[in-house]
Design goal:
This protein is mainly α and 119 residues long. It has helices at residues 11-32, 37-41, 52-75, 86-92, 101-118. It starts with 10 loop residues before the first helix and ends with a helix.
């Protein structure tokens, strides 16, 4: 197998991506501002979709997974980056029945500590 060439970002491109990443938690909070419990639990009409509550829990879990993946890529000589079954996480980790505040705090903490590494 032939290795693919690596594309390097310019400093400006990298800084723009880090800034966008930094703003992500604020954007999530902005979207959720004023949401009621009914809003968080409303199921969209499309099949196989998630409620806003479920999406928040997914974002927190995804952020924590990504934080660990980045650390492994940086710290380990031969990191193994594994995927995860998102629908199974949603079902087994009760995405539809938990308060969102701890998930939002986990998202913020994972993002903040990862930003320290990226910056």
């Amino acid at each position: 197998m032939t290795a693919q060439p690596t594309t390097r970002l310019s400093r400006e491109e990298r800084d723009a991506l880090v800034a966008k990443y930094r703003d992500g938690h604020r954007a999530v909070l902005e979207v959720l501002e004023g949401a009621t419990e009914d809003d968080l639990n409303a199921l969209p009409a499309a099949p196989d979709t998630w409620t806003a509550r479920m999406v928040v829990h997914h974002l927190a879990d995804s952020e924590m997974m990504s934080a660990m993946r980045l650390r492994r890529l940086i710290a380990e000589e031969h990191p193994v980056i594994e995927g995860y079954d998102e629908p199974t996480f949603a079902r087994r980790l009760f995405y539809d029945d938990r308060p969102i505040e701890p998930a939002l705090a986990a998202l913020a903490a994972a993002r903040t500590t990862t930003l320290q590494i990226l910056e």
